[in-house]
Amino acid sequence: MYLPERPRILVADDERIIADCLAMILDQNGYESVPVYGGRLAVERARHWRPDLLLSDVSMPELDGIQTAIEICAIVPDCRVLLFSGDPGSKILVRAAGKNGHRFEFLPKPIAPIDLLRRIRHLRAA
């Protein structure tokens, strides 16, 4: 019996509990997800795992979510990006990245699972 591949979502957040919880929600809803605990780790993982979508916090030390998304999209050009943050200023940073040609979606924290899943379905359909 043929089982179609589940869409791959790379979840990046420096707060382990958030990354793990988001990955669990995604796995329970038909996605294949991998949590990583920082931007640099996300880029390294994307080189080999080739995600369909990156779900990342904007505010992370070492490599923020926007730069992480830019680097991953250079490696995996078809990868969609959904960034999230509890910092109101992050939405401005995401818009600025858009003005530089980067197409990233944004969700404010806290993230309701139903909103997250709806936004991911929308991104995958686009």
Q: How does this model look, in words?
A:
- The chain is α/β, with parallel strands linked by helices.
- It has a single domain (8-110), classed as Response regulator (Rossmann fold, 3-Layer(aba) Sandwich).
- The chain is built from 5 helices and 5 strands, in the order βαβαβαβαβα.
- It has helices spanning 16-28, 39-49, 65-75, 90-99, 113-125, and strands at 8-12, 32-36, 53-57, 80-85, 105-108.
- It has a 5-stranded parallel β-sheet with strand order 2-1-3-4-5, with helices on both faces.
Summarize the structure.
This protein is of the alpha/beta class and 126 residues long.
Question: Largest sheet, order of strands side by side?
Answer: 2-1-3-4-5
CATH superfamily: Response regulator
In total, the number of strands is: 5
CATH A-level architecture: 3-Layer(aba) Sandwich
Beta strand %: 15-25%
Structural classification: alpha/beta
What is the molecular shape? Answer: globular
Tell me the CATH topology.
Answer: Rossmann fold
CATH classification class: Alpha Beta
N-to-C span? 29 Å
